[in-house]
């Protein structure tokens, strides 16, 4: 049992880290420190530090559908989250050229909510072009899409929501230490035969933090601090690009649903503050395998230093998406192009567990977002608090995944990830 005044150290101030700090503080813990290597919270390289993220509850697996519904209740009604949630609806479809896999995953998503009472009267099929223009009258492209429109979904202004949780944490007394990276975790020397206990961390600047419980919430960068995570988590990135709209153009697109053609990509209502239209191509994304030991074998995928680019193939995909929906914007310049790094697992299950071989229930990993965790911001930290209390992860699916190999085929994605090593240097470096 963790005393209320026992020191808790959370490493990483992104989606999992902030939510964890918030829930521990809400549960009455009074000695919480969050370490963040970047100088700002939310940090620039956090996947959640984004203009917007999809908030939806349909999943291939009803287990996650229920968790997302719980999170959505908070997005809708909790004053901390509701200012950042926009229930514009969610148009999920496949273009005429979509592969069978895309159709299958869409059918599964729909099945997870179709009979659910929370969605009664909220879902309509998309079969014809008119079905789309009924819910998005400004779309004037050809769109031979099939899918459905879900009114009980939308998006969150992701960066603003993280900032709100950060402020709430500060108000609850959580200490944030930024601008200093963790160099290594520290361990107590235990008698032979006993698992070593994690005692906190030491930073690059040489500062020591001592904790009864350390939580690693490092997203895609987990392996840089905990190499023993191995291949169960692979940093996997997707491209993000924007079009700078004029205020008039943005006004015209006000209220459009989150629109996702599974085989092409997705976009959101333009940002209400900046008039930026965010676009993402879909696909299996990118890995960045590097060697984690001196043998030179590429064994772990971690985010690279330079991420402000997207590939020509991804650029073409988002232009194709626009040609289908808003052809007048299809040739516009793309701005703020970058890669957004997620922590993928082989089966898209999160990891919320104690690190095996570490004694005293002293080290937890909260990771494996697999590109579907931001919507859980209101509830994710509670899973960590519950784990700390329970002393063991009872949900098999969230356990440490020793021996699993992320970075391969994922049921709900189209294609296989491309390693950045195969992307020409001229595309992925600051020339
Ligand atoms: O949970 C969600 O609605 C996010 S899906 C968005 C996405 O880009 C995926 O399409 C992609 O496969 C990856 O997981 C990153 O997130």
UniProtKB/TrEMBL annotation:
<dbReference type="InterPro" id="IPR006076">
    <property type="entry name" value="FAD-dep_OxRdtase"/>
</dbReference>
<keyword id="KW-0285">Flavoprotein</keyword>
<dbReference type="Pfam" id="PF01266">
    <property type="entry name" value="DAO"/>
</dbReference>
<keyword id="KW-0560">Oxidoreductase</keyword>
<keyword id="KW-0274">FAD</keyword>
<comment type="similarity">
    <text>Belongs to the MSOX/MTOX family.</text>
</comment>
<dbReference type="InterPro" id="IPR036188">
    <property type="entry name" value="FAD/NAD-bd_sf"/>
</dbReference>
<protein>
    <submittedName>
        <fullName>FAD dependent oxidoreductase</fullName>
    </submittedName>
</protein>
<dbReference type="InterPro" id="IPR045170">
    <property type="entry name" value="MTOX"/>
</dbReference>
<feature type="domain" description="FAD dependent oxidoreductase">
    <location>
        <begin position="8"/>
        <end position="387"/>
    </location>
</feature>
């Amino acid at each position: 049992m963790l005393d209320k005044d026992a020191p808790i150290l959370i490493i990483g101030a992104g989606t999992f880290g902030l939510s964890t700090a918030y829930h521990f503080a809400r549960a009455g813990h009074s000695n919480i420190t969050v370490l963040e290597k970047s100088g700002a919270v939310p940090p620039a390289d956090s996947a959640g530090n984004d203009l917007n993220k999809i908030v939806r509850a349909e999943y291939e697996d009803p287990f996650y559908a229920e968790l997302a519904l719980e999170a959505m209740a908070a997005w809708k009604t909790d004053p901390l989250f509701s200012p950042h949630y926009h229930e514009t609806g969610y148009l999920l479809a496949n273009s005429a050229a979509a592969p069978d896999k895309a159709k299958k995953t869409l059918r599964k998503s729909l099945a997870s909510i179709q009979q659910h009472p929370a969605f009664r009267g909220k879902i309509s099929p998309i079969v014809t072009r008119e079905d789309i223009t009924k819910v998005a009258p400004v779309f004037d492209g050809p769109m031979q899409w099939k899918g459905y429109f879900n009114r009980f979904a939308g998006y969150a202004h992701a960066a603003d929501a993280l900032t709100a949780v950060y402020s709430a944490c500060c108000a609850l007394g959580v200490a944030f230490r930024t601008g200093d990276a963790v160099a290594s975790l520290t361990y107590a020397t235990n008698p032979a035969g006993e698992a070593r206990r994690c005692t906190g961390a030491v930073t690059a600047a040489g500062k020591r933090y001592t904790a009864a419980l350390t939580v690693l919430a490092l997203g895609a960068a987990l392996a840089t601090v905990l190499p023993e995570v191995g291949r169960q988590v692979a940093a996997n990135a997707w491209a993000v690009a924007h079009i700078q709209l004029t205020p008039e153009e943005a006004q015209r697109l006000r209220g459009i649903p989150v629109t996702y053609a599974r085989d092409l990509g997705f976009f959101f209502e333009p940002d209400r503050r900046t008039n930026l239209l965010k676009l993402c191509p879909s696909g299996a994304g990118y890995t960045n395998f590097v060697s984690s030991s001196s043998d030179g074998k590429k064994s772990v995928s971690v985010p690279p230093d330079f991420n402000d680019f997207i590939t020509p193939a991804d650029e073409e995909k988002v232009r194709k998406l626009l040609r289908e929906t808003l052809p007048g914007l299809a040739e516009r310049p793309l701005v703020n192009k970058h890669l957004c790094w997620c922590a993928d697992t082989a089966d898209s299950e999160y990891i919320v567990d104690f690190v095996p071989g570490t004694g005293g229930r002293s080290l937890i990993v909260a990771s494996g977002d697999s590109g579907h965790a931001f919507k859980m911001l209101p509830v994710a930290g509670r899973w960590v608090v519950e784990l700390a209390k329970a002393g063991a992860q009872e949900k098999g699916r969230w356990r440490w995944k020793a021996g699993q190999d992320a970075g391969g085929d994922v049921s709900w994605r189209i294609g296989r990830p491309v390693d950045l090593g195969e992307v020409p240097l001229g595309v992925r470096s600051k020339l």
